[in-house]
Amino acid sequence: MYPKLLQAWNISAEWNSPKQNELVRRSINICIISLKR
Questions:
Q1: pTM score, whole prediction
Q2: Exposure pattern of 1-37 as b/e (b: 16+ CB <10 Å)?
Q3: What is the mean pLDDT of the chain?
Q4: How many CA atoms lie within 13 A of 9 on its CB side?
Q5: Domain residue ranges of the chain, discontinuous segments joined by +
Q6: Gap between the terminal Cα atoms of the chain
Q7: CB 32 within 8 A of CB 5
Q8: Residue 9 neighbours by CB under 8 Å, 6+ apart
Q9: Which spans in the chain are helix H?
Q10: Distance between CA atoms of 13 and 8, rounded to whole angstroms?
Q11: Angle formed by the axes of helices 2-15 and 18-36, to 10°?
Q12: Would you say which domain of life the source belongs to (predicted)?
């Protein structure tokens, strides 16, 4: 699950505009924080 998240982030980083990319980055950071708890 963890590598798939990073892979999805890499794809979105290439395809999305900077503003959308920032939102995606925040969402994934929230997901990672939730997984670490």
A1: 0.45
A2: eeeeeeeebeebeeeeeeeeeeebeeeeeeeeeeeee
A3: 76
A4: 17
A5: 3-36
A6: 16
A7: yes
A8: 24, 25, 28
A9: 2-15, 18-36
A10: 8
A11: 170
A12: Eukaryota
